[in-house]
Please model this.
Amino acid sequence: MKTPPSQRLVELGITLPPPPEPAGNYIHAVKTGNLLFLAGKADGPYIGKVGRDVTIDEAYAYARQTGIQLLGVIAHELGTIDRVTQIVKVFGLVNATDDFIEHPKVMNGCSDLLEDVFGENGRHARTSVGAGSLPGNIPVEIDMVVEFA
Amino acid sequence: MKTPPSQRLVELGITLPPPPEPAGNYIHAVKTGNLLFLAGKADGPYIGKVGRDVTIDEAYAYARQTGIQLLGVIAHELGTIDRVTQIVKVFGLVNATDDFIEHPKVMNGCSDLLEDVFGENGRHARTSVGAGSLPGNIPVEIDMVVEFA
Amino acid sequence: MKTPPSQRLVELGITLPPPPEPAGNYIHAVKTGNLLFLAGKADGPYIGKVGRDVTIDEAYAYARQTGIQLLGVIAHELGTIDRVTQIVKVFGLVNATDDFIEHPKVMNGCSDLLEDVFGENGRHARTSVGAGSLPGNIPVEIDMVVEFA
Model:
């Protein structure tokens, strides 16, 4: 029997934070049918461009922390992350120098977390790209589409 | 009783333009189920990079004008914007200098419009990012996913 | 009677490749309802920034080749591309110099292919933007949302 994702969080020692204040006039997530579209999020102790101010390992940790924040939003919207039936799509933006090439290594920070928590249902389609700049000079921004029951 | 969005446009003095000519081999919008996926749009009197050629206030106005163009596409596709039940997701790209950090302030130009027109149903999940470059050197490009009845 | 897309591939002399190894911890595509969300892909003989290392014509060819790779993923996921009822959304990222403006001409490489193969059902909403950088310094990355029966 599969461990419920909320139980996996306990095993991983992860406590979900409440959703942060939005940085503008938008909301964290919108439900349509059985899909949840999440706003872009960012969380972690680093600031600046990956490849210059922030290392790949730091950016990986930042992407994982951002994933935890997105899970916090999902829990807030659905009551519990156990209602997630599939992580559908992850879109990851890395605020990088223009010669940076390791975006997938950074985004694995979020993807590894999702697989750790949801198992097969956490495996998703992903697009990883380099942004020329990001709000507040955050190193990584991630949004998601999630299927829920 | 809630004012219909088409009536709100009249109150706001907004006339929706017809969809512009696509800049390439694509169409303005595709319906699937009760979702409408819109192509990226841009509209306004400014050109160039935000933070260098275009100010934040100008870019805010550009994002609002682009929002009006997107509403024009929605009206064209659905017959009337009154069929919109929810703005689901807004994706905003700001053509910015690589040290620009105020993307949310720019994108509020579109988001404030959507809330003005649709009220609570206009409040959406949003991702705002900095593009390294944009077609024709436009300062802002926005696409959307919209739920309709 | 409309020619089936798989037959159109034969007429166009196109053989679909198997899906490539993902560049990180993600999967090629996820089905939800009758939508297929595809991960970002890239394929072709060029490397580097469009407008400096790669010409528009080369990038057009790269976008077309990437489109063929995406069709390969669709065929792998659905058994055959003939189950596609509509290409819904194409999102194209061009790894470009910061003064590049011809993103639509590049992305037409993918869009022209989709129209060649699927006809009217291949015409899609599209967003074309300039990325500051892309994984492995690829010139173009494309993802899609596809409706299937």
Summary: Residues 5-11+29-148 of chain B form a domain with the 60s Ribosomal Protein L30; Chain: A; fold (CATH 3.30.1330.40). Chain B is about 30% helix and 25% strand.
